[in-house]
Amino acid sequence: MARPAFLPALLGAATLLFATTLPAEDAMTGSFRMTYKPADIVEPEFAKALVDQKIFKKKTELQWQVYVPESYSKQKPAGVLVFIDPDGHGRVPDPWQPVLDRHNLIWVGVRQTERKTSDAQRVWQAVLGSRALEKDYAIDLERLYVGGSDDTVPSALNTMLMVNDFAGAIYIRGSVFSPALASNYQQAMQRKYHVFMTGTDDLQKDRIRGDHDAYLRNGFYNSKLIFDTQRLGPVPKPELLDEAVGFFDARFVR
User: Fold this and answer.
1) What is the DSSP letter of 10?
2) What pTM was computed for the model?
3) For residues 36 and 58, what is the distance between their CA atoms, to the nearest angstrom?
């Protein structure tokens, strides 16, 4: 897996440029597809910057697969798990839905509509997906998480590092570590939460274990290795996702 090229911070004024609306009284729950143009989510000058830097084409329409628990209520803002799917379909795995329900998490799966996407496109689509939700849903901004699997793990890490709002990332069957990462992003990495997920059938398991150890050696103590002693499978068991989210949310327990 190639090391990630960490993206320049277009976000210098991004928090001032996102368009906002109040959450609707009766927001949709269950599974559905969400489609927006970047200009529908951000202010015109920021959408133009995304085009000028060749991240998106001018008329690009972005899509996400969304799952909102039936118990969603604007009186109890939900957390968000943005997932960058290596297969590009973005759908939430059926076994994971009860975990999302239990933890009051909305799933936003990045849906790729082009055959090839760059890391920058994946990252910005993940960021914009979480922002788009805020147009119609009450979101707990302290519980924004991102996940990636296999070759999308660098995109998940980039998303978390680019945007302060993202508190934790799940790396499934993949990981990223380099001395430059530890040096250049030390403070950000120490503030964030990291879950490495692997298993006995994962060809990358030794590297993932080594990278997790390197995180700890470099002071990134908010890191956890979740190892499936049986078969990790294409979709990790729901109890593994439950453990990962529980690790993130444990910081709220007093």
Assistant:
1) G
2) 0.90
3) 13
